[in-house]
C-alpha cells in the first residue's frame, strides 16, 4: 500500500487521534506513556502478580502502577483476575487486544534498543554544539 492509499484508508476510519475530542487519544496516551508501554511489555511474557510486575518495571511506584493497570484494564488491554484465596491473589494478563498492542510496542522497543548507539552519538553531538541543558 502506498502513502496515498494509506491516507485514504486513514480518512475512512471512524476515529482520528489527531482530533482533540477523539477517545482514541486517551488510549494512545495510556499505551505510549512510560508506565503503560513498560507494563504492556512486561505482561507480554505472561501473567504476573502486582508485586512481580512492580519488580519487573524498575522505578515504578505502587501508585503509578495501580493507576496504569486501571487505565489499561478500562481500555480493554489488561485483564485483572482476583483469586478467592487467603490472602487474596490478583493476577494481571494481557487481553487479545493487549497482546496485539504489546507486540507492536515491543517491535518499537527492540528497534530503539538496537539503535541506541546512534541515539547516544546524536545526543553527544547535540550537547557539544548546543551545550548540555
TrEMBL record:
Domain of life according to the entry: Bacteria
Record key words, sorted: DNA-binding, Transcription, Transcription regulation
UniProt keyword Transmembrane helix, yes or no: no
InterPro entries registered for this protein in UniProt: HTH_HxlR, WH-like_DNA-bd_sf, WH_DNA-bd_sf
Signal peptide residues on this chain, from the entry's feature table: none
Boundaries of every HTH hxlR-type domain copy: 22-120
GO MF, one example: DNA binding
Protein name: Transcriptional regulator
Pfam family, one: HxlR
UniProt KW Transcription regulation keyword: yes
Amino acid at each position: 500500500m502506498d502513502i496515498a492509499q494509506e491516507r485514504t484508508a486513514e480518512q475512512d476510519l471512524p476515529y482520528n487521534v489527531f482530533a482533540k475530542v477523539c477517545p482514541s487519544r486517551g488510549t494512545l496516551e495510556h499505551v505510549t506513556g512510560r508506565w503503560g508501554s513498560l507494563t504492556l511489555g512486561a505482561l507480554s511474557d505472561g501473567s504476573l502478580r502486582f508485586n512481580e510486575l512492580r519488580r519487573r518495571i524498575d522505578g515504578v511506584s505502587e501508585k503509578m502502577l495501580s493507576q496504569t493497570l486501571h487505565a489499561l484494564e478500562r481500555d480493554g488491554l489488561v485483564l485483572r483476575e482476583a483469586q478467592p484465596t487467603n490472602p487474596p491473589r490478583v493476577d494481571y494478563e494481557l487481553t487479545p487486544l493487549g497482546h496485539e498492542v504489546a507486540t507492536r510496542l515491543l517491535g518499537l522497543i527492540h528497534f530503539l534498543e538496537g539503535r541506541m548507539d546512534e541515539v547516544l552519538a546524536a545526543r553527544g553531538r547535540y550537547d557539544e554544539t548546543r551545550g548540555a541543558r
